[in-house]
Amino acid sequence: MSLPVTKHQLSITRSGFTLIELLIVIAILGVLGAAVMFTFRGARSSARDTQRKSDIKQYQTAVEQYANRNNSLYPLRDATNVRVSTTLCADLGLAVCPEEPQSANFYFYRSDGGVSTGAAGAATFYLWVRLEKPPTPVTYFVSCSDGRVGCTTSNPTGWTNACPAPLTAC
């Protein structure tokens, strides 16, 4: 035997969400948002490092083309760790120079020349830039006139005029 249902009993239905359900959803969305932001931050620094490596390789190509036009000699730049965009671009005759994606880092060039005239006269060179990843130890991407390209944790500023070994893949 079933009990009769009144109109009043039918009109009481649950509508909407409780406060606890809303708080749980907001908490889950907050955790997911934080995870996405953390992932994108790492992706952006990796993208900038990829851009840096590409730019150094473009500079290496330009320096090699310069040497092809100048009896296999590279631009002379002394051991003052020349910022590429301020001097080397003019030496190479480039109208547009790749710039470092962040102003905190710069591309550098060093040759075995004893003077810093920018004229053809150096037998060796290396280019380098500091990478963002990994943050520790500090890592540098290096491109050498002998064809070696790779990473090192040794600061290139203190090197003599030769590209040191070993460079690791990065």
TrEMBL record:
SUPFAM superfamilies: Pili subunits (SSF54523). Keywords: Membrane, Methylation, Transmembrane, Transmembrane helix. It is a single-pass membrane protein. One of its GO terms (biological process) is protein secretion by the type II secretion system. It holds the Pfam family N_methyl. It is found in: Membrane. GO terms for cellular component: membrane; type II protein secretion system complex. Its main location: membrane. The chain crosses the membrane at residues 20-43. InterPro entries: Bac_GSPG_pilin (IPR000983), N_methyl_site (IPR012902), Pilin-like (IPR045584). NCBIfam families: IV_pilin_GFxxxE (TIGR02532). This is Type II secretion system protein GspG C-terminal domain-containing protein. It comes from Candidatus Woesebacteria bacterium RIFCSPLOWO2_01_FULL_39_21.
